[in-house]
Q: What sequence folds into this?
């Protein structure tokens, strides 16, 4: 099958290109990128969220991207902005609404109408849930839609207690669906995770063929995303072999750092990795060039063994069209739910003509047809699911401990 032609080159809105701003403006940028609610979910880059805005489909679809992660293991998280046919904008999976983000949204509003709808398309993703109340306050005329079976951690609280506006928050499916004259909606779940519920709501924009999803499928690019041009620190930190190496910048180091970040993000503790002894770690600390918080004062406990590059390459180029289920989700979220996931992917393939997949993480847009999704479903059914050996061993150990503690169900649809 012929693939759709690539869209025009993604474009950043002018005010987003922080790399072109003068050094004297850095303090002003920091204020525009401030995110005061970060202590509620203390992930890197904490209180400062730089944002890259790209036009994915001209005049139709935009991507607002920020970095998010733990201990410099940071990957892009995306809000997708969709122009509505009736006028106005829909926000799918909001990111932290910094002043910089709000400025860019106001700029889009001047051309395409007001933000009318905010969608939280997941029940369990705290990183997607936390920005929603602040975004709703910034646009007080919007309707907020959330998936059923919402839950919070560590305490399960009503949505109103979490900051969701009670008078204008509605539940998808239970109270209808927004903009059905333009959009098709397809839920995955709810799936019982023991500690909570996993649910994801995909959305197809029929006119453009763009399918918006959250976490369940991704395409991992072989090169670092452009977002890292605004903050390459995570790449440079993990490109090193030892903690006494300074954070030097080069294309080769960025590429090596990206490969290692991908391994960490997918397997948590990759197989070709050793943890240094306390003596080695302390010996590396406070080396010249590493005596600051950006380098964690030289604290870097990792030693990479030969073979790690092959593991990373396999993750980045494993499937036609590049689509995959992230390993951490397959082994910890879907280990006993393959049938439900495959059924959902086939339902997505039946929605209508697909041209693009827009996940909330990693690369977008991904050229994707209905046949690509059907082929992915077939491959997931045919191959071994949620392995326990090799690179998957650490994830499998976590899953076994959770099952033994009774925190997650030991049975699923396929048991």
A:
């Amino acid at each position: 099958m012929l693939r759709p032609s690539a869209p025009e080159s993604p474009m950043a809105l002018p005010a987003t290109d922080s790399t072109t701003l003068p050094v004297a403006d850095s303090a002003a940028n920091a204020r525009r990128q401030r995110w005061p609610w970060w202590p509620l979910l203390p992930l890197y880059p904490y209180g400062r969220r730089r944002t890259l805005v790209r036009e994915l489909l001209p005049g139709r679809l935009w991507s607002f991207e920020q970095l998010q992660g733990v201990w410099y293991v940071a990957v892009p998280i995306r809000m997708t902005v969709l122009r509505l046919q009736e006028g106005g904008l829909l926000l799918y999976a909001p990111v932290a609404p910094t002043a910089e983000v709000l400025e860019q949204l106001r700029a889009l509003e001047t051309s395409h109408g007001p933000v009318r709808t905010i969608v939280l398309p997941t029940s369990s993703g705290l990183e997607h849930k936390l920005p929603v109340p602040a975004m709703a306050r910034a646009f007080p005329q919007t309707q907020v839609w959330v998936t059923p079976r919402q839950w919070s951690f560590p305490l399960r609280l009503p949505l109103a207690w979490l900051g969701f506006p009670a008078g204008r928050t509605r539940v998808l499916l239970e109270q209808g669906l927004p903009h059905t004259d333009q959009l098709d909606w397809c839920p995955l779940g709810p799936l019982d995770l023991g500690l909570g519920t996993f649910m994801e709501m995909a959305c197809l924009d029929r006119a453009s063929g763009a399918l918006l999803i959250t976490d369940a499928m991704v395409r991992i690019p072989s090169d670092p995303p452009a977002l890292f041009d605004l903050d390459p620190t995570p790449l440079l930190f993990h490109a090193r072999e030892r903690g006494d190496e300074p954070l030097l910048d080069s294309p080769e180091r960025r590429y090596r750092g990206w490969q290692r970040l991908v391994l960490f993000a997918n397997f948590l503790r990759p197989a070709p990795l050793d943890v240094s002894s306390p003596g080695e770690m302390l010996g590396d600390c406070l080396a010249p060039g590493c005596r600051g918080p950006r380098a964690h004062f030289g604290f870097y406990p990792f030693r990479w063994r030969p073979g790690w590059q092959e593991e990373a390459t396999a993750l980045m180029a494993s499937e036609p069209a590049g689509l995959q289920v992230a390993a951490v989700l397959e082994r910890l979220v879907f280990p006993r739910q393959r049938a439900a996931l495959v059924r959902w992917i086939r339902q997505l393939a039946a929605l209508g003509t697909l041209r693009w997949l827009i996940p909330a993480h990693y690369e977008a847009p991904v050229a994707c047809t209905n046949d690509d999704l059907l082929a992915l479903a077939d491959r997931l059914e045919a191959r071994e699911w949620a392995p326990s050996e090799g690179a998957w061993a650490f994830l499998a150990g976590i899953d076994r401990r959770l099952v033994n503690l009774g925190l997650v169900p030991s049975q699923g649809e396929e048991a």
Observations:
- Residues 228-316 form one domain.
- The chain has a mean pLDDT of 88.
